[in-house]
Amino acid sequence: MQAKIYFGSSVATKAKSSERKSPFSGDVVSTAPVCDRDDAKKALKIAQEASKTAKASTLFQRCSWLLDVAQKLKENREDIAKTITDEVGKPIAFARVEVDRCIETVTLSAETMRTMHGETINTDAMASGKKTTAFFSRVPVGVVVAITPFNFPLNLIAHKLAPALVAGNAVVLKPTPEAPLTAYKFAKLFIESEFAIKDALSVVYGDAEVGSALIGSDIPRVVSFTGSVPVGNIITKSAGIKKVGLELGGNAATFIDKSADLNLAAQRCSLGAFVNSGQVCISLQRIYVDAEVYDEFAQKMAEETKKLKVGSPYEDDTFLGPLIDDDAAQRAMSWVENAIEEGAKPLLEPKREGRMFYPCVMADVRDDMAIVCEEVFAPIVSLVKVDSFDDALPRMNNSPYGLQFSVFTNSLKLMQRAIDELDAGGIVINDMPTLRFDIQPYGGVKLSGVGREGPRFAIEEMTEIKSVVIC
Questions:
Q1: How many structural domains comprise the chain?
Q2: Catalytic residue (one of 269, 281, 360, 461)
Q3: Three-state DSSP state, 243
Q4: Does 382 lie in the same domain as 464?
Q5: DSSP assignment letter at 433
Q6: Active-site residue, 421 included
Q7: 281 catalytic, yes or no?
């Protein structure tokens, strides 16, 4: 990839570029332009002008646009999956799954927009009212800024681009610096589509300087960000009067009831804790286990974890590839070493080979240990022994995060209590809290964020309600 940048439909080059090296091999796999504040301002002005054309476009054109992109994704599935693996080290089998999910997200956005509508209002419902023709409709906000992370460098772009564009907005995308080529190839499908709205999508690369220019501008009406809590806090303070959607960190927990299917629970928990090397905001981090089944579950969890292959992300049967960089791998080992010093016991020997960090199950973990209090974002899961769900419930809720929780149980009463009393944006029954369907509303409470993703819910975030009364 040359150091190219999309300013709307035009492709420009930048004198300075940065290299992206594979987290697995260390080889250079892509390059990206080094953008600055002026590039961000230019992209925003192009989007501001293009938003007028986008607003005037037909829904048929916009839906056709997305469906054309979905078809091109199918045709380029293997190439884009390999690009994901090259840039972020995601095992190729899971990279293919991400492409497939992206296709679904784009398709769902088009299908959802076809049925999005306003409604009529009975203005004579109260004594102060009178008969009129009144209704509301949804209209595009204008310009959307989308900022995306490395862990799902394709599908998390889709969750922002597809709803924003199909709703009739223009978008400026700032993708993660760790996967510039993935973003470039995806954006190219939109920009070169025969149904494309001219200049409705721009892509700028960069870190704090570019992000600050995009967020602080008065041009965008929506900022949609997925990333860390500290950056989310900066965005909230800097954005001014505009809609801000934040999908931030998590500390996902589950409870294993004594009535649960322990084989199922162990199998699903090992997947939920270690998929994408734990680099998922809803990665399972805390497992609260009823004391009556704690030892049995711990053994089964260790056995399931041993089955997971760690190795080259280019092999079809690899489950865990490298962490994103050296700092992440060193941080993961520090989490484990500190927990051991505090009295926790690893059920599998902690092991690190460069950026490769082997899955780690920690037993005898206490609530005051940092390994369960903070987001680890690594393939580490902690087992905590509890007397009952009554014992587990306040511990699960005692977190600054509230993205997704789950319980494994065959008790209908306990299921209902979990749904009612767990403090999170999503509750899963008899599966891992890492479960996400792209059609569902997705987002958290507390420090886990503000707003919801999922095509229908993102479209609602990226449109305004216009009220009309005809007297």
A1: 2
A2: 281
A3: strand
A4: no
A5: T
A6: no
A7: yes
